[in-house]
Amino acid sequence: MNLAAVFACAYAAVLVLRAVCAWREIHRQAALPAADAAWAMSGVAVLQPILGGDPRLAEVLDETLDALPGARFHWLVDDGDTQARVVVASLRAAHPRARVAVEVNPPAPDGVNPKSFKLDRALAAVEAPVCLVLDDDATLTAGALARLVAALDTAEIATALPAYVDDGEPMAGRLLARFVNDNAALTYLAPLAWAPPVSINGMCYAMRTAHLRALGGFAPLLHALADDLAMADHVRAHGGRIAQTIAPVRVRTSIEGPAHYIRQMHRWMLFATLLLRRQPLRLQLGIIVLDGVPPLLLWATGIALLARPSVVGVLGAGGVLVLRAAVTALLQRRPGGAASPAPLLSLLSELLQPLHLLHAVCVRTVRWRCRRYRVHADGGFHVA
User: Fold this and answer.
1) What separation in angstroms does the CA of 101 have from each of 46, 97, 145, 196?
2) Distance in angstroms (rounded) separating the CA atoms of residues 299 and 182
3) What is the number of helices (H) and of strands (E) in the chain?
4) Which residues have C-beta within 8 Å of that of residue 6, sequence separation ≥ 6?
5) Phi, psi of 71 (to 5 degrees)
6) In 3D, which of 40, 224, 47 has the Cα closest to residue 138?
7) How far is the C-alpha of 189 from the C-alpha of 148, rounded, in Å?
8) Measured between alpha carbons, how far is residue 51 from residues 82, 105, 136, 369 in Å?
9) What tens digit of pLDDT does each residue of 266-300 get?
10) CB within 8 A of 261, min separation 6: which ones?
11) Is the pTM of this model over 0.90?
């Protein structure tokens, strides 16, 4: 028995299963009737917690204002964040007709999530029937917003599908983009074939304001560092449904170098471990097999081939690499896909995933928003 070929076939089988399920979900949602984008904008309050320091901040916020001219924006800045306050002041001057309210906030207390703290303070001023939480490095088109709002007809919370834009980014930034873009459809859409969503994309999600207030607003999230996971759990605990849509949210984050990339991946993987621990055993096993095992199968294929080279092994490994490149390229042709295929960088990104996961399991302290936090097993945290 040729182990390299066996591992390659196992990887291919899992990949094809996930890709078929993801592609079917993309086509199913794409066939739904289009919603009225203009109406959707007029009834939406866009809540954006803003943190200065990213060189792309002004560009991304400006693009969002242009994309959603009918929405009401709530820009939530920190009192001591001079850079953010300068950016928002200049953008308000450049867009005099935009409906923008700048809300200045004091520092969040220790043990309180800074993002949720600002969102919770802003909710009282929201008058629109729908709240859209949108990160300051993310942009959403009018059509994508309409799709999110339409999804609220059958769900209590609707979330978008992330697509990272890596134009002009250094290697570390492109590697991060590859991780997100290669895995977005496979991770968020494929599981919908057999189970409802268990979490949301915290970069962009929508809820009806009245329902959000009925759930206590953002107050229940204040002491959870993974605010997206906490919101999803809170909604589900109250019998709510999550709609995972194909509405693309385009993200532009400046990654300064390898250290920044490692910190970002560490934080995401640590949050993934929190998600996994909260699921029933059957779902845990499904997540592990579909999301955790494939990178290990790639490593096993390579190691087996090096240990015992053979024609069959080379053909198996080569075939799975071609299949992998074709699948990732196909899935990223979905509406809103942000990056062109980069097979070698994509392969490197997947091979690094087990190392990032090991890092998250061993090190429970993350650096986020210029501070270091120790994350507890229940999702709580304190300043380290």
Assistant:
1) 10, 12, 20, 36
2) 18
3) 14, 11
4) none
5) -85, 160
6) 47
7) 15
8) 10, 12, 7, 8
9) 999 999 999 999 999 999 999 999 999 999 999 99
10) 172, 173, 175, 176, 255
11) yes
